[in-house]
C-alpha cells in the first residue's frame, strides 16, 4: 500500500518569525514528522500550494480535487489549514475509489506544544483503514465530510447533523 500526501499549507506548516506573530507557510513538515516517527509505509509527497486556508479559493480546491483524481494512489492524506478544511473536504466528495483524509493543526508542527504530530498519526492510520470516501481526522476523532465544523471558541472540530 502506498499513500499520497498532498500538502496545501496551513498552520501545520507555518513558521513564525517574531512575537508579533509574523509568519509564512514554510516547507511541508510531513517528511520530518514521518521520519521522526519511523513511518515505514511507502508514501509520496506532493506539495500543491503553501497557503493559509483562508486564502484557499474554489480554483485551489479544483486543483486539489484534480490532483486526487489523477493520483495513481487510492489512499490520499491531505494537510490543510483548519479554518476552511471542512469546505475543501466537501468539494472532494464523490471521487470514486479513493480514501481521502484531511488533517491539520491548531498550532504549527514546529512548536514544542502542538497537535500536529497527533493529528498526522491519526490521519495516517485512518487513510489506511477507512473505506473510500472523504474524512477529516482532528482532535482524536474521524469525521465524515459534510458532517463536521470547526468550533473556534472551543478550539476543536465537532460533528454536525445526523
UniProtKB/TrEMBL annotation:
Active site (catalytic residues): 11 (o-isoaspartyl threonine intermediate)
GO terms assigned for molecular function: asparaginase activity
A Pfam family recorded for this sequence: Asparaginase
Keywords: Hydrolase
Keyword Ribosomal protein listed: no
Domain L-asparaginase N-terminal, chain residue ranges per copy: 3-152
Enzyme kind, highest EC tier: hydrolase
Keyword Transferase annotated: no
SUPFAM superfamilies: Glutaminase/Asparaginase
Entry binding sites for substrate: 53, 82-83
EC code(s) of this entry: 3.5.1.1
Signal peptide bounds: none
Protein name: Asparaginase
InterPro entries: Asp/glu_Ase-like_sf, Asparaginase/glutaminase-like, L-asparaginase_N, L-asparaginase_N_sf
Amino acid at each position: 500500500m502506498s499513500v499520497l500526501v498532498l500538502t496545501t499549507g496551513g498552520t501545520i506548516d507555518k513558521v513564525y518569525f517574531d512575537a508579533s506573530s509574523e509568519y509564512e507557510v514554510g516547507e511541508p513538515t510531513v517528511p520530518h514528522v514521518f521520519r521522526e516517527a519511523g513511518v515505514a509505509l511507502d508514501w509520496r509527497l506532493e506539495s500543491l500550494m503553501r497557503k493559509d486556508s483562508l486564502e484557499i479559493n474554489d480554483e485551489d480546491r479544483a486543483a486539489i480535487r484534480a490532483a486526487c483524481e489523477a493520483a495513481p494512489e487510492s489512499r490520499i492524506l491531505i494537510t490543510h489549514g483548519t479554518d476552511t478544511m471542512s469546505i475543501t473536504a466537501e468539494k472532494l466528495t464523490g471521487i470514486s475509489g479513493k480514501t481521502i483524509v484531511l488533517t491539520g493543526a491548531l498550532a504549527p508542527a514546529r512548536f514544542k506544544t502542538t497537535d500536529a504530530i497527533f493529528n498526522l498519526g491519526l490521519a495516517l492510520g485512518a487513510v489506511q483503514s477507512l473505506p473510500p470516501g472523504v474524512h477529516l481526522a482532528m482532535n482524536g476523532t474521524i469525521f465524515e465530510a459534510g458532517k463536521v465544523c470547526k468550533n473556534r471558541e472551543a478550539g476543536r472540530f465537532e460533528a454536525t447533523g445526523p
